[in-house]
Specification:
single chain, PAS, chromophore, Beta-Lactamase, sensory transduction, 4 domains, 5-stranded antiparallel β-sheet, Blue-light-activated histidine kinase, 17 helices, 18 strands, 6-stranded antiparallel β-sheet, nucleotide-binding, alpha+beta
């Protein structure tokens, strides 16, 4: 559409150019006739000024050349007329002619310059108009083919123009949309939101957005983000409002699914009494759910510095929160820490999750669970089992106590029918047996010597039987000493009932040595009996057999071995120094 002035002049039809030339010629002719008559009737008093209007008209109609030629012609005609009528040309006439010639030239040049300026302005205007039309064409192309719906509405909400995408969204044709109001497309429950958007335009802001439900032509609804914009050119409000419609049904569906999953996750965490947490190891920032801070006994907070947790985490467990030195991109994280709550109670807390890098930042995230009740239950069960074992052992010892006492009575002969001496000897044996029994029933935190435990158990039988005890000095911790004393007690009880201690000619040898040259290796313990054994069962497959390890692992030590013949018995046991050491 760009077109310069010369092309516009050249586009004039020949008839138009001819009429222009005829008009200029007519003005020139009329002026010349008027000047001739004026010179004849007025005389020398006439001037050349009457030619100026004609020059102006011709300069307006024609270009610079014809206007200058007409001026020269007028001057020449005026001078000829005065010379013919008056016989001479006065100095004033020459001055007027020169002035007219100058005035005509100025007028012709002025109109020529004005015509050039107008031509340049038209060229600039046409270039700008072409740019505007190109921009409008691109805008209209984008408007029609945009991936989002576009429309223009007036302040009353009437649709003035819409694009193809909005028609596809709503199912209406473009001409049908032009007959509707925007409110008609909005779900009834969301029309108040649209009214608020329209009311706020131009007051609070020039643009508002809201998520509303729009109705299709078939009556179904879909979620859309509605953005209303009001342009303000030169401080004057535009009469139209630009509307952008973005279909967010898929996004809303995903959002609702995520919200439902979060609710299910929160319900599962709540049912399992779990809490979520995350530690940014680079900045040392800890974030967690309300349940997490409640487990730690701290008030709810958005985040805390990792160092703040040192006030509640047990010092022995604080290193478990240190940064892992593993270079793997993802590392499982599973630790249990103790937490001291403000009320002084110690709680066991499990932190399970993973340690990973995200955006070059090392972090931990996972769930937390309070294990205190489970720990207490485990300890109570262990204590109950230990008590049950102790009661079973006490019961077994109590049952064996009477045969031992009976055997002691039978073993002690009445010396020279001295009953008093017999009673004294019998009481000494019983007191020795009582000492061993008190050792096994005493405080398990004390330690004892291996030699003392063996001698104390065999003390009631020394002097009446041939017994030897030998071995290096070995100290045993309380629990190991009690368990070992029970093994020696079981061997002595069995020997009294069926073996060497029950035979007046029997012999018992007890010795132990280090299995290696250093004093940190295992200790080899041997119990050897020689003499006639009674033909009855020598070892019951019950609690006693469990103690010495015939039916499994012994109470203390390892690798038990029992060898029996009609004329003796040998029991071997290995005691680990790490196991029995104090």
């Amino acid at each position: 559409m760009s077109m310069n002035w010369q092309s516009r002049r050249s586009d004039l039809n020949p008839t138009g150019r001819l009429l222009t030339h005829l008009a200029s010629a007519s003005v020139l002719a009329a002026t010349l006739i008027f000047e001739t008559k004026a010179s004849a009737y007025i005389g020398e008093g006439s001037s050349f000024l009457e030619f100026i209007p004609a020059i102006i008209i011709i300069s307006y109609l024609e270009d610079r050349g014809p206007a200058l030629a007409a001026t020269v012609l007028m001057v020449a005609a005026g001078l000829w007329t005065r010379s013919t009528l008056h016989g001479q040309i006065s100095g004033e006439d020459w001055a007027r002619a020169i002035l007219l010639l100058i005035s005509g030239g100025v007028i012709a040049m002025t109109f020529h310059r004005l015509r050039q300026d107008v031509r340049e302005l038209l060229e600039v205007a046409e270039a700008r108009l072409a740019a505007v039309e190109a921009t409008e064409s691109r805008y209209r192309w984008a408007f029609e083919r945009a991936a989002m719906g576009f429309a223009n509405i007036n302040e009353k909400g009437e649709l003035l123009q819409s694009n193809r995408r909005l028609s596809e969204m709503t199912g209406y044709e473009e001409d049908e949309l032009a007959q509707l109001q925007l409110e008609t497309l909005v779900h009834p429950d969301d029309r108040d939101a649209l009214a608020q958007l329209l009311a706020g335009l131009g007051k609070d802001s020039a643009s508002f957005a809201s998520e509303v439900r729009l109705l299709r032509r078939n009556g179904s609804a879909f979620w859309a983000r509605l953005t209303l914009s009001l342009s303000v050119p030169d401080g004057v409000l535009s009469e139209t409002i630009f509307v952008v419609v973005d279909d967010i049904s898929g996004r809303r569906a995903v959002h609702e699914a995520l919200r439902a999953q979060k609710e299910w996750l929160d319900l599962a965490l709540s049912a399992g009494r779990l809490a979520t947490w995350r530690i940014d190891l680079k900045d040392g920032i800890v974030t967690g759910s309300g349940a997490f801070w409640d487990i730690l006994g701290l008030p709810p907070a958005g985040s805390r510095r990792l160092e703040e947790l040192s006030a509640v985490v047990h010092p022995a467990d604080w290193p478990k929160l240190a940064v892992s030195r593993k270079l793997a991109s993802v590392t499982n994280y599973d630790v249990e820490i103790r937490v001291r709550r403000p009320d002084g109670h110690i709680r066991w807390v499990a932190l399970r999750g993973r340690e990973e890098k995200y955006d070059d930042r090392l972090q931990r995230l996972g769930v937390a669970a309070d294990l205190t009740e489970r720990r207490q239950t485990t300890l109570l069960r262990a204590a109950a089992k230990k008590r049950e074992r102790i009661m079973l052992e006490q019961r077994h010892r109590f049952i064996n106590l009477f045969p031992v006492i009976t055997a002691l009575v039978n073993m002690v002969n009445v010396p020279e029918n001295n009953v008093a001496r017999y009673k004294e000897t019998l009481i000494d044996r019983i007191r020795s047996l009582e000492a061993t029994h008190l050792l096994l029933s005493g405080n398990s935190s004390g330690s004892g010597m291996l030699h003392d435990l063996v001698v104390q158990e065999l003390q009631p039988y020394m002097g009446t039987r041939e017994i030897s005890v030998s071995g290096p000095s070995v100290t045993m911790s309380g629990g190991a000493a009690e368990s070992f004393a029970m093994i020696v007690h079981e061997l002595a009880t069995n020997s009294l009932k069926h073996g060497a201690l029950g035979d007046s000619k029997g012999r018992v040898e007890v010795n132990w040595t280090f299995a290696s040259e250093d004093a940190v290796g295992d200790i080899a313990f041997d119990w050897v009996e020689s003499g006639r054994r009674r033909p009855s069962k020598v070892v019951r497959h019950g609690f006693g057999s469990m103690i010495i390890g015939v039916d499994g692992a012994p109470l203390v030590g390892h690798s038990p071995k029992l060898e029996m013949t009609d004329h003796g018995l040998r029991y071997s046991l290995r005691l680990s120094r790490k196991e029995i050491g104090p």
